[in-house]
Write a structure and sequence with these properties.
291 residues, single chain, alpha/beta, 47% helix, 12 strands
Amino acid sequence: MVSSVPSTRVLTWPVLEAVKGLGGSATIPEITEAVVKSMELSEEQQSIPHGQGRTELEYRLAWARTRLKLLGLLDNSRTGVWSVTDRGQRVATADEVARLFKAYRAAKKAAGAGSGTGDVDADLDNPEFDEDQADDVGNWRDQLLQVLKNMEPDAFERLAQRLMREAGFTNVNVLGKSGDGGIDGVGTYRQSLVSWTVYFQCKRYQSSVGSSAVRDFRGAMSGRGEKGLLITTGTFTASAKDEATRDGAPSVDLVDGLRLCDLLQKYGLGVSSVPRTVYDVTVLPEFFESL
């Protein structure tokens, strides 16, 4: 149930702690994984869907990052890396964050009342405000993920085949109904004088892929190869990521929905990218005064 997911208010401090613990900067997946581990969130809590390509946990974590940014405790770069500010380094408790947010909200309400504006908390309640990605993760990636989830299974497998070919794989074959144990296809990846046979599986998920799916896929690979690639339109739970890199077991590389979108954009598969030039314009009053 959605109510089992910690609220944005509860998640805010663990997010700040996570970035601090990761050396003062972190990517969104790193933050998510650290919060999941520190709060001991279950796979069920991680898997509850919110819609438009995100889980409820990811959505609330995005709000938590937004709040910390509004308070000047976190900042994010154009490449989606979040970092602790000097002010954030000085904040040492969850109570301090709560007090800062209460003061921020009071100031916003006072400013709204003084200017006659309506919704003074619009920036807090608008999920589009979260600037996790430089090019609006809430727009084209969500749209693309929805298209991918609506594809027929065999079409999605052919898309994975095309993507692997673009990425340098050869002899990529979709096994389709002939595949057993959940293996959807196989390809060969060569680097210099060495090559690997890589089996892949495609999962059009609305929510998170858990550790059991990774174990089942690895079991299907048993006796065939030592490398696997698991591609999903959803996300992977922390335990799934741990299982994928478990010592003594064949490794399984994971491609989640957001990374899949980025790869499709990189290779121009179903995504058209047009570069934009942005100008910083400064008005020079002295020029007009000199005329």
